[in-house]
Specification:
The structure holds two protein chains of two kinds. Chain A is mainly alpha-helical. Chain A has one domain: MetI-like (MetI-like fold), CATH 1.10.3720.10. Chain A is built from 13 helices and no strands. The longest helix of chain A is centred in the N-terminal third of the chain and has 32 residues. The two termini of chain A are about 40 Å apart. Chain B is mainly alpha-helical. Chain B has a single domain, classed as MetI-like (MetI-like fold). In chain B, a hairpin with a 2-residue loop joins strand 1 and strand 2. The longest helix of chain B is centred in the N-terminal third of the chain and has 38 residues. Chain B is globular. The chains are: A mainly alpha, B mainly alpha. At the A-B interface, helix 1, helix 4, helix 5, helix 6 and helix 7 of A face helix 1, helix 3, helix 4, helix 5 and helix 6 of B.
């Protein structure tokens, strides 16, 4: 009897949790007139008209490509510079190591939005307003604190004999880093990439402030324009929502373990 | 840990790219932002040193009339998150700990909305809750609940509670996962021993499980507070930058955005920078305070 109630609560909530997303997906395959006739219904068939319309007429192609270019480049750049920095911070002894570590990691608690106006004028003076490069640099820089935090910890726990052996064999620091260290920290690299990808893909605030040119918009701000423009074309709106969501779901399916582990990590601290 | 001490200089070389990027695009704007707030501005030109005049402006007259309701809405959001979302998250975690099969699938389904962009969530619910063609009201009418088929987001009285409900729907997976992990760390023997001593399920929950969940609750409370204070994209999608209807969903984030980019005020830079500093001080200070209070009790 009791277990029945528990089952009912769990599966009942699961339905509630998934239903809006299912409606979104189903409606994206239905013509707008069908949706208006019957808000909850199944698509007559696999019809991609809404997607074609959103992709071509509503410039979703531009938004998606901009988002992919910006987020992928920013995540890789942020991971690359952080890896370089985390290697000596985690493994080598040099003056100012503690200070540099604190400097980088302090960014995790700082409110980045506080600096958005000066950032705007800084980018403007560099000619990087309305520029994908500007957004990439901002994102990559913003990812440094978290990346350095995770990667430094990871470097530190690798066995100490590794660099010694490499340097005895005559490898310089760069060669050691590239050939010995990099392959070993691969799991940590995957973690920081997945972790940065989601918030950057979803980020709305920076492009809202830094991008004006329609051809340079990433998905989130593009979505706000799209919703104004296609207000009454619900089928196309649903298709646009699905297209914004799918890349993250794909990433989630590919990396569920890392996300769940990361979400729950450190909770007992 | 053996650390090579040879070739010291090269360590610094490794730091250069990250250092430049981070200093230029994160630290420098933050520090300049602080300094902006103590000057008056004419557009983008710095005018005169203003001391605390920008801060005084925020806390008096017409601006205060916007600031207080916005802050109030942030607090209601926090209260709603604690009462509805985190209670539900705990209930789901408890139920999951009793479930035998399908745990993994259920967890994934509860947590999936959290992955979706808050903007998408906002727009999706705008469509779902639309008074004319929205499926929610169609369902309610179909169930004979015509009285409940109403413009949930269009009525100032129901708009904010609806925002809380949507936030709950999106984020409940988060407390659920944290509580699940914490429940997994509680040894079975505690409950068993109490049951042998004659405690019923309810007493076991109140006297044993709940106190042991305190650290997790502390973490969740603090994260909920920060999340509620910083909310922006979801309310922007639901009510635009003015917090429609009639400012019923206006929050600090929207107010800052308007002050910085949509106020038409000549001194927008001074005012909005002061607001940003004030918001940060308030949120950061409250978080520290919350942390101390919550940790002391534990």
């Amino acid at each position: 009897m009791k277990t029945l109630w528990i089952k009912l609560l769990l599966w009942g909530y699961a339905v509630f949790s998934m239903a809006p997303l299912v409606v979104m997906l189903l409606s994206s395959f239905r013509p707008t007139s069908d949706i208006f006739d019957d808000p909850i219904g199944l698509p007559a068939g696999p019809e991609f008209g809404n997607y074609v319309k959103a992709w071509t007429e509503a410039s979703f192609s531009t938004y998606v490509i901009n988002s992919l270019v910006v987020v992928v480049t920013a995540v890789l750049l942020g991971a690359a510079v952080s890896l370089l920095a985390a290697y000596p911070l985690g493994r080598r002894r040099f003056t100012g190591r503690g200070l540099f570590t604190a400097y980088f990691i302090s960014g995790m608690t700082l409110p980045a939005h506080l600096g958005v106006l000066p950032l705007f004028y800084l980018l403007e003076s560099m000619g990087l307003i309305d520029s994908l490069l500007g957004l990439i640099l901002v994102y990559a820089a913003g990812s440094v604190p978290f990346n350095v935090f995770v990667l430094t910890a990871f470097f530190r726990q690798l066995p100490g004999e590794l660099d010694e052996a490499a340097s005895l064999d005559g490898a310089g620091p760069l060669a050691t880093f590239w050939h010995v260290m990099l392959p070993l920290v691969r799991p940590a690299i995957a973690t920081v990439i997945v972790f940065q990808f989601v918030p950057l893909w979803n980020d709305f605030f920076y492009p809202l402030v830094l991008m004006r040119d329609e051809s340079k918009l990433t998905l989130p701000v593009g979505l706000t324009h799209f919703f104004g423009e296609f207000q009454n074309d619900w089928g196309t709106l649903f298709a646009g929502l699905v297209m914004t969501t799918v890349p993250l779901v794909v990433l989630f399916v590919l990396a569920t373990r890392q996300i769940v582990a990361g979400l729950t990590a450190g909770m007992n601290r | 840990m053996a650390v090579s001490t040879t070739r010291r200089g090269s360590s610094h070389l490794f730091l250069i790219p990250a250092f430049l990027l981070y200093t230029l695009f994160v630290i420098y704007p933050l520090l300049t932002g602080l300094s902006y707030s103590v000057f008056t501005w004419k557009g983008t030109l710095r005018d005169t040193f203003a001391g605390f005049a920008n801060y005084v402006h925020l806390l008096t007259g017409s601006f205060l009339d916007q600031l207080l309701p916005a802050l109030g809405h942030n607090f209601l959001l926090f209260a709603g998150t604690m009462l509805v979302q985190n209670t539900l998250g705990l209930a789901l975690a408890l139920a999951l700990s009793r479930a035998r099969r399908g745990k993994r699938v259920l967890q994934t389904m509860f947590a999936l909305p959290y992955l979706v962009n808050p903007l998408v969530i906002g727009y999706l619910w705008t469509l779902l809750l639309s008074p004319t063609f929205g499926p929610v009201n169609a369902l309610l009418r179909g169930a004979g609940l015509d009285g409940l088929a109403m413009p949930w987001l269009g009525d100032p009285a129901t708009a904010l509670p609806t925002v809380i409900a949507i936030t709950t729907w999106q984020w409940v997976g988060f407390p659920m996962l944290l509580f699940s992990a914490a429940l997994g760390g509680i040894p079975q023997e505690y409950a068993e021993a109490a049951t042998t001593d004659g405690a019923n399920a309810w007493q076991v929950f109140w006297r044993i499980t709940l106190p042991l969940l305190r650290p997790a609750m502390g973490t969740i409370t603090i994260l909920s507070f920060i999340g509620s204070m910083n909310t922006f994209a979801l309310v922007y999608a639901l009510g635009g930058s003015n917090g429609a209807p009639a400012g019923a969903t206006d929050v600090l984030g929207l107010l800052f955005y308007r002050a910085a980019f949509a106020s038409g005020d000549v001194n927008a830079m001074g005012t909005s920078s002061a607001l940003a500093v004030l918001m940060f001080t308030f949120i950061f200070g409250s978080t520290l305070l919350l942390e101390r209070v919550l940790r002391r009790k534990a």
